[in-house]
Design brief:
Elements (H helix, E strand, L loop, with lengths): L7 E4 L15 H14 L3 E5 L5 H10 L8 E7 L11 H8 L4 E7 L2 H6 L5 H17 L3 E7 L1 H21 L4 E6 L6 H14 L5 E6 L6 H10 L4 E4 L13 H11 L13 H12 L16 E2 L2 H9 L17 E2 L7 H10 L7 H17 L7 H11 L8 E10 L8 E10 L2 E9 L2 H14 L9 E9 L10 E9 L2 E9 L2 H19 L14
Helix pairs in contact: 1-2, 1-10, 5-6, 6-7, 7-8, 8-9, 11-12, 14-16, 15-16
């Protein structure tokens, strides 16, 4: 068991995170994420705002049936409105009806907001906070009070900001959270004000911190707040949230676990961090941030030859923590900056032995030639695996190409553009001619290729193209410039990237498509239907 002081992680991905631009969760998404967060071991999961939308209402109905091992489920809402009895507050009733064991209520801390936004008196605002916390507490709920705009309020009127906290405590709040709602504070501000707030809070009340990232320092502010007396940290996974987002728990959690004397997860759970981050990105329909600390795929990626040489001797030379601790892995990037050592390390990742100098030199020379032509394998590892097998004459021949044709037709200004591809292949001595229409020429070519091959390799029915990117190289040549196409594909077991380069965008796409489907067959350990030499591309 860890003896480190424990910081409670309050996850607001499902509520505050859902307020981020382009973020939308279904009820099922929220339930799956809640189960994942509990498995990770966070202390609190804020599920949403009951009564604000049907999705949140349905979520709480279903979530009440879940048995969490580590987390407490929280329902979020605001204090009673001015000039109504607390018993008549529909918002507070919805919090109780949600069935959540923890209720988080937000209240105004700034006199400016009280008078200009709520249009009420300072005294009435204090009563709204005190009575709302008491109503929920006496109903048997654990109450967390979020002091909105706390740091701005402190600068404006520190005595009133203190009074807000103490009124929440007197009403039964077991935790008061200081909110940098506008995200405008710097670490020095957070440190000084949090220390002052910690002095007035009773020792049996938890002090929390809630930071937004509008100044780019939400993670640093959260860590400084803990150093200054906070014991609970609110945030969201991957930092999603309104405007510039919330404090990023994907960074905060490993910072506490690996860089401080504090702990925030059960022992052994930190390795679940990257899978959790990636899963939540998928549910948000967002591409993961490649350069995110700890969980990004580039967080432990090495490109420069000198760096690669150093980490091959001791990873600590250019890595601040072991990637496995957070569920990530080390990657060696192959480019024209690579030396033979980089190529060897990269090849060893995938089981190649380049100790034979002839093979290693041949691989490096072919890599350099392709890089000079415009290929880039840094994020196209599937094509790199195909290339290395081909260099060592170990790549199976799944089919031979007899030819393909792509037609793009628009009959009139009113008609849609029609794309049709025809592909002729030979597999196991059988000629296969297939045509397909698609949303564009590459989509049509992809469909025709896989339609031809699925007859011989049914496993390809599980494969789909999910992303397609084009980059023009040396644009000075205009439409005759080299074109690099990167394709991302997926099946039920994972995602992979391939690359193709040509002066013709369709040919570049074809090269990447062929690598994609052949890699899919290879990783599924499917034997080729033919064994003849020299496949055309």
């Amino acid at each position: 068991m860890s003896t480190k002081p424990v910081i409670q992680i309050y996850d607001s991905t499902l509520r505050d995170g859902a307020q981020g631009e382009h973020v939308s969760f279904s009820k099922c998404d929220k339930l799956e994420i809640a189960v994942l967060l509990d498995k990770l071991g966070v202390a609190y999961i804020e599920g949403g705002w009951p009564g604000s939308n049907p999705t949140d209402d349905e979520f709480f109905q279903e979530a009440s049936k879940l048995k969490f091992q580590y987390a407490k489920l929280c329902a979020f809402g605001c204090t009673r409105r001015k000039d109504i009895r607390v018993e008549d507050s529909p918002n507070l009733r919805m919090l109780l009806e949600s069935g959540a064991p923890v209720c988080t209520v937000v209240g105004k801390t700034s006199p400016w907001h009280v008078e200009r936004v709520l249009e009420t008196t300072r005294a009435e605002n204090l009563a709204m906070i005190r009575e709302s916390c008491r109503f929920l507490s006496e109903a048997g709920r654990e109450v967390i009070f979020d002091a909105e705009h706390f740091f701005d309020a402190w600068r404006l009127d520190s005595e009133y900001a203190k009074a807000v906290l103490l009124e929440a405590v007197s009403g039964g709040a077991s935790c008061v959270t200081l909110c940098d709602t506008n995200g405008g504070m710097l670490p020095i501000d957070i440190m000084e004000i949090t220390k002052e707030a910690a002095r007035i809070i009773p020792s049996d009340v938890v002090l929390g911190i809630h930071c937004h990232n509008d100044s780019g320092v939400a993670v640093a502010n959260s860590i400084v707040a803990v150093r200054s007396g906070a014991q609970l940290v609110q945030g969201t996974f991957n930092g999603i949230g309104e405007r510039c987002g919330n404090a990023n728990l994907s960074t905060i959690i490993p910072d506490f676990e690996l860089k401080t004397n504090f702990s925030c997860l059960p022992v052994g759970h930190l390795s679940l961090l990257k899978p959790a981050s990636d899963f939540i990105c998928e549910k948000c329909n967002m591409r993961p941030d490649l350069h995110a600390p700890f969980v990004g795929s580039s967080a432990f990626a090495h490109k420069a030859g000198l760096h690669v040489d150093a980490i091959s001797k001791n990873p600590m030379t250019f890595e601040h923590v072991k990637p496995e601790l957070v569920g990530n892995r080390r990657r060696v990037l192959i480019s024209d900056l690579s030396g033979r050592g980089s190529l060897s390390m990269k090849a060893e990742e995938f089981g190649f032995d380049l100790r034979d100098a002839r093979i290693g030199n041949a691989g490096l020379e072919e890599l350099k030639r392709r890089e000079n032509a415009g290929y880039e394998y840094e994020s196209a590892e599937a094509s790199f695996i195909v290339l290395m097998h081909r260099v060592m004459n170990m790549w199976p021949t799944y089919f031979t190409l007899d030819g393909f044709r792509v037609i793009i037709e628009k009959r009139s200004a009113q008609d849609k553009v029609v794309s049709e591809a025809t592909v002729k292949l030979t597999v196991n001595g059988q000629s296969q001619l297939t045509a397909a229409e698609g949303d564009g020429p590459v989509n049509a070519l992809d469909l025709a290729l896989r339609k031809s091959l699925e007859v011989f390799y049914p496993a390809l029915r599980d494969v789909s193209l999910i992303d397609y990117k084009v980059r023009i190289l040396e644009s000075i040549n205009g439409t005759a410039a080299q074109t690099r196409v990167r394709i991302q594909s997926r099946d039920s077991t994972g995602v992979w990237d391939t690359v193709g380069v040509s002066e013709n965008i369709i040919e570049a796409s074809w090269i990447a498509l062929v690598d994609s489907v052949e890699y899919a067959l290879f990783k599924k350990h499917i034997e080729p239907s033919i064994h003849d030499e020299g496949k055309k591309q």
